[in-house]
Model the fold of this input.
Amino acid sequence: MSDPDALPHVPAPEARQRALGHDKARAAINSQIAAKRLPGAILLHGPQGIGKASFAFEMAAAILTATGDEPAGRVSEQVAALSHPNLFVLRRRPKDAKGFYTVIRVEDVREIRDSLHHTRGRAGYRVAIIDPIDDCNPSAANALLKTLEEPPADTTFLLISHRPGRLLPTIKSRCHNLALRPIKAGDVRTILLEYDPALAAEDLDRAVALSGGRPRRAFETLSLEAASALGALQAWLQNPVQHPSGAALQLADALGASTQSTELSFAREMLDDWIADEARAAAINGENRMRLASANELWDKAHALFADADDINLDMKQTLVAVFDAIRKHAALTIQSPAENP
Done:
């Protein structure tokens, strides 16, 4: 089964089965395995591209090995080939030779549900990975909920989510929740060098700097031209007030030229991260309520602008200009420059 979100020439999560970082979550699941108290469902949530799927397959191999009767090496080989009889993987299915369905459909969920009620193919637990559950349409999500409410015996679901806030509360309540976070820059560097030991130092440094702790983003950076506008966006976001208004217009022209480009998708993630980090910093500070209110308003406005652009095909350049302007106004009102800090 192909991964609809796979990057060219990058090992698939099932082949990698090793996610650097995430030590706290790994320890939590390993302790459950050792205590023989695995929950029926574990929700692995966090930003996209931080290695959640690789982590899920790593944990699946650990569960299958600990509860089965085969050596770890043999289990890992079967997981990599998606051929282990006790492993079930649900992703968006191929629609035809040219692409995939845009969602996980209810019939896909019913198929895996029926398979789980058959006699197991081998001793030990069964593991079902939903990668990601965010792709389930409403009917599929409701069908999955029914399965989680009455799960098959000795079965653990590993649900991957990039946007847990959008999931049905009843699904989240049925899961043991584990939050995964962006990994250290050193771990991203290690992953890139494992992929290509001969990677040029300049390309490696650029990819790590732009990754934000997300290995997937680092790999995407390697596919972009060195003169990409993403570096300019990163510099602009470090201090939006410092740059002239023309800089934002140039960024919008460069990034909004194609609505289907990897560069634009990357830029939208960077903007999301910046606004989320700003809201988080304001909430932790707690003293500047205006900053928190402004950050929340900025989050809502930016997402509404992008949603409108996506839904009714608005000019992406103008959308980016509006988002940049909103960020600049927020920064001017609420963020002190270094000279103003005591």
